[in-house]
């Protein structure tokens, strides 16, 4: 019997790559960030086998699993062999039991120098839960404040491209953080996956300050860890970004309408806003949207909804900048914090 390794042992290896051998659905729902998917059973096969197993016919379920898995072994061997040329390859399933153990033992017997994650994805998740708060509290944060459309995300992107520590929560959550924040974007990750992405990002930072945008408690359907929100809100490093109304309109228009499918999402969002701005106002905005009067729609949303419901709380800002040019804003922030 070949021995499995703990996550703590594996992450210290050079060129480690995790291979999730679960089905495509399980992989898409949540996995270890950076992992690749080589399923030993696909979605349909897993459902069929689970149904038979849960009905009590354990022996037939095992026979069926062997039948489905065996036809994939040659292809899996080739893929793992190729990966092993430049990486330390580690297999995992959910609990580190049947799927990854069987495949690991077969591949090891065939001479592949690969590893298996002890306890599977569940043990990785336990590691994240036990260490996320400590990791959050180990960093110092610069909190970027400002109303919708002032260019906070643009500034964060420039800082990140300049190799600074940037925690872009909206990017990790795949959502812009407001009721229209999903316009033109794909589905958000699960809460567990969001926390894993957050953990992975925080691990990558050095000891210099971390730049983060001030967010509400939730980004779309996802909860920001309370300790993180408290940490950046209580930071002594608070930055306020301002911008003219027209510049804000132009930024929002550029960001939200660059995807041709975003208009339908925006219409749905405006309908949801009817409880805040009234059904009549929602209908007027949708008519203007269909007539491509985008500036008027965005101005109404800014003045009648966003600035009221997403007001910036009064703080002692140690730096205030009027954003005419996001590149220059980012440069000023880097100079001020000497990073």
UniProtKB/TrEMBL annotation:
Residue spans crossing the bilayer: none
Keyword annotations of the record: Selenium
SUPFAM superfamilies linked to this entry: Rhodanese/Cell cycle control phosphatase
InterPro entries from the UniProt entry: AAA_SelU (IPR058840), Rhodanese-like_dom (IPR001763), Rhodanese-like_dom_sf (IPR036873), SelU (IPR017582)
GO biological process: tRNA wobble uridine modification
Domain Rhodanese residues, every copy: 12-133
GO MF, any single term: tRNA 2-selenouridine synthase activity
Entry annotated with the keyword Metal-binding: no
PANTHER family to which the protein is assigned, alphabetical: TRNA 2-SELENOURIDINE SYNTHASE (PTHR30401:SF0)
Protein name, per record: tRNA 2-selenouridine(34) synthase MnmH
Species the sequence originates in: Finegoldia magna (Peptostreptococcus magnus)
């Amino acid at each position: 019997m070949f021995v499995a390794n703990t996550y703590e042992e594996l992450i210290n290896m050079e060129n480690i790559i995790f291979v999730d051998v679960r089905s495509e659905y399980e992989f898409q729902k949540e996995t270890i960030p950076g992992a690749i998917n080589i399923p030993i059973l696909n979605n349909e096969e897993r459902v069929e086998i689970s149904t038979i197993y849960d009905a009590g016919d354990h022996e037939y379920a095992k026979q069926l699993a062997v039948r489905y898995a065996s036809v994939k072994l040659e292809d899996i061997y080739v893929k793992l062999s190729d990966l092993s040329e430049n990486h330390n390859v580690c297999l995992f399933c959910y609990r580190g039991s049947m799927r990854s153990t069987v495949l690991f033992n077969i591949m090891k017997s065939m001479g592949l120098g690969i590893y298996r994650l002890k306890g599977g994805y569940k043990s990785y998740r336990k590691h994240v839960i036990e260490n996320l708060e400590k990791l959050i509290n180990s960093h110092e944060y610069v909190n970027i404040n400002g109303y919708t459309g002032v260019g906070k995300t643009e500034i964060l992107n420039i800082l990140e491209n300049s190799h600074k520590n940037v925690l872009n929560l909206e990017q990790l959550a795949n959502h812009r953080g407001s009721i229209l924040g999903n316009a033109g974007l794909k589905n958000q990750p699960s809460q567990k996956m969001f926390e894993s992405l957050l953990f992975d990002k925080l691990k990558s930072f050095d000891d210099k300050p971390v730049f983060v945008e001030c967010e509400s408690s939730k980004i779309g359907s996802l909860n920001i860890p309370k300790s993180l929100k408290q940490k950046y809100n209580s930071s002594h490093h608070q930055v306020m970004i301002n911008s003219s109304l027209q510049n804000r309109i132009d930024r929002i228009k550029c960001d939200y309408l660059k995807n041709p499918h975003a208009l339908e999402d925006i219409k749905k969002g405006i309908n949801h806003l009817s409880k805040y701005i009234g059904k009549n106002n929602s209908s007027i905005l949708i008519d203007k949207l269909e007539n491509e009067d985008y500036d008027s729609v965005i101005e109404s949303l800014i003045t009648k909804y966003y600035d009221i419901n997403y007001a910036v709380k009064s703080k002692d800002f140690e730096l205030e900048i009027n954003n005419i040019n996001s590149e220059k804003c980012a440069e000023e922030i880097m100079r001020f914090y000497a990073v």
